[in-house]
Amino acid sequence: MKNKTTRIKELIEVLNRASEAYYAKDEEMMSNLEYDALYDELVRLEEETGLVFSNSPTVNVGYAAVDELPKEAHEKPMLSLGKTKDREELRAWLKGQKALLSWKLDGLTVVLTYQNGELVKGVTRGNGEVGEVITGNVKAFTNVPLKIPFEGDLVLRGEAVISYSDFEKINNDIQDDALKYKNPRNLCSGSVRQLSSEITAKRKVQFYAFALVKAEGIDFHNSVEKQFTFLKEQGFAVVDYKAVTEDTIVSAVASFAEQIREYDIPSDGLVLTLDDIAYGESLGMTAKFPRNAIAFKWADEIRETTLLSMEWSPSRTGLINPVAIFAPVELEGTTVSRASVHNLSILKELKLGIGDTIRVYKANMIIPQIAENLTGSGNLEIPDCCPVCKGATTIRKINDTEALFCMNAECEAKKIKAFSHFVSRDAMNIEGMSEATLEKFIAKGFIHDFSDIYHLERYRNEIVSMEGFGEKSYVNLMESINKTRNCALPSFINALGIANVGLATSKLLCKFYGYSLEKLMDAEAMQVSQIEGIGDVIAGGFCNYMQDKKNRDLLQKLAK
Fold this sequence. Notes:
Layout: H1 2-24, H2 32-49, E1 71-73, E2 82-84, H3 87-94, E3 99-105, E4 108-115, E5 118-124, E6 130-132, H4 135-138, E7 154-161, H5 164-172, H6 184-192, H7 197-202, E8 206-215, H8 224-233, E9 241-244, H9 249-259, E10 267-274, H10 277-282, E11 293-296, E12 303-314, E13 319-331, E14 334-340, H11 344-350, E15 357-363, E16 367-373, E17 393-398, E18 401-406, H12 412-422, H13 435-443, H14 460-464, H15 471-483, H16 489-495, H17 503-512, H18 517-521, H19 525-528, H20 536-547, H21 549-559
Parallel strand pairs: 2-11
Antiparallel strand pairs: 1-6, 3-9, 3-10, 4-5, 4-7, 7-8, 10-11, 12-13, 12-15, 13-14, 13-18, 15-16, 17-18
Helix pairs in contact: 1-2, 12-13, 16-17
């Protein structure tokens, strides 16, 4: 009994710290898989011992919010849902009732209030009882109606989300790989809770309604589905759903499972809600869960395999990413043999070593991840030299996360990635200048810095005779290069690859300085940091770049 009590206390401490990081700081201490496993262990131990402490996450819903946004109590507490991974358990849960099966979207829950047909308030879920007022930011969401036909008091709940496609675009705009967002949920949570709605607007946050709390004077004939229809008529996007019964629930779950790989909105399961409002309310609730709905979590398909090697992949910022290479396994219908380990902190936590037996899965059925290391040899050596240039490496700590960097400013990998970024679509947009072509030109000495791209005519005869080239390819490439000689200034600034200065930030800078390269080159950090959406770190990095003599000489050459 003593050992079980000790373990319960350990689990409560770990899970509460994870909840604080997740709900209050937009950070993730552990994966959903790890959290669920520990949570289930805690539930089992509490049932076995009869011990349930007041600070247990099984009776507490969330964590206190900790920032400067105004706080407000919810009219009705927002509880978490009970969950299952068993499709047959879903069928049994229905007990002959009709229900609605919908996506469980993975973003930030928001409560909207309308009066006299106008949006008057938006509040985050917070800890379930008290949330943060984000009305200005909600008005910057891409699809929230500011005015609706219904003029009575209306309160609804929904999920604020950022699509995978928009997430990738935003991450591609961040130059420092170490500062890229881990997943759409983290980005969405930070975007929704901004103190400036201008930043929220740039993140393309969407809102999908999933519950109607109050609609003054409207009779929905005791049906949640009719509530959804009403919300659609008011102009709200409603979470995709299917009406199901005991006979159709299993096939409906299978239908959602088939869609998940192509579905652009992040989700982490499904929600089954009873359609009969009165019956659902009559069931009441536990200390933590309402009984009119249940969450279905995808049962992660996990495979054991052997870690064969660790690939160290350099980026143009110098960050060297660890990628695990393992014996191929079938996961969710595809063959998988590699997974990003993200950083050194995760690598060390997993105690990875060559030959280890690891368990891998696809997070939300999409992204390959290492779930755990069964043997934990920890024999993997962190390289002290870059795999490309053989220059020295160093370990840096960024936001409590350790990452490996190449110290050599002239590293070939950095060069190639930097040139690749320079010619990319959101930068100079030079068609036909692939990374493979850049590698050949750099190897032959045609290109040393960005300005050399605009003098490739010097090497016409050599380029035409190169394998894969010819007169036509050369002419097309030169035409593409010449088209960019008068490109838009924000694209040019983005192309330079200044740390954390992507296209969106470049546009802010250019607008502030009147689209003058000269003024940008003479910008001062204190002034730049005052621009809405640009902080001290970005301002300092930008001005340091502009004040560097080598960079100024390059800019002068490019401007000619």
